[in-house]
User: What shape does this take?
Amino acid sequence: MIQVSTSGYYNWKKRPGQLISAETLNLHRRMKTLFKQSRNSLGSRELMKKLCKEGFQIGRYRVRSLMKKLNLKVTQRIAYKVTTKRNHKNDVANNLLNQNFNPVAPNQIWAGDITYLKTGEGWVYLAIVMDLYSRRIVGWCINKRMTTDLISKAMIMAYNLRQPPFGLVFHSDRGSQYTSKHYQSLLNEYGIRVSMGDVGACWDNAVVERFFGSLKHDWIFKVAQPTREYMKKDVAAYMRYYNLERLHTANGDQSPINYENSLKKVSSWT
Assistant: This one.
């Protein structure tokens, strides 16, 4: 019934059972839990960092070997695609960043973009606002239409959460939503300076594009997305995981919120 030969069965029966210590068993269980929590997206490097933070003495080579043994396989990503298109009737701003994505304090440089997500009911579009200092998502909005209202709601959420000082720089591409008079008026009201890369030049907004890659290929694509409402809830779940749990090399292997909290301990920033 199980398609095993008689000789193979008796050879297996004669072999002694493999003993495993409680410490190793705990390690295996924790690796599986962390991998599942990340929706099967943690590679050996990031999983090693997570384990070390929890007190396990383990190197990347052993993590890689155990991932193979425990059948913890990460799905590969696919290529970036352009979402927004420029409206040549609208004015554009200069690129104030020039791919310098590492401000020295919070609320100095924010970045944003739009991406598309497929559900069983059709497409939805997600706009985000990220604080480049900590890589934290401070504002986001999801809707079935890719409009100026979509990005405006994401910015309003970010502004209400952070209350940034005048002079903050917001960087985006030159998509028609971002160059629209309505959106530029909103930024001007908030005292936000505008910076724009070129349309389709993903390296001009590389940090945001990496976030979208992680969202889609580490999270969204791992489960069925039957409805727009289900997608919205799943995106919200990832925002919590990303801001609270996901480690970032740029943050000294801390999550965005933990990185900001560590800053509060050594400064007066609130």
In short: Residues 228-244 form the longest helix (17 residues). The mean pLDDT is 86. The first strand starts at residue 109 and ends at 119. The two ends are 66 Å apart (CA to CA).
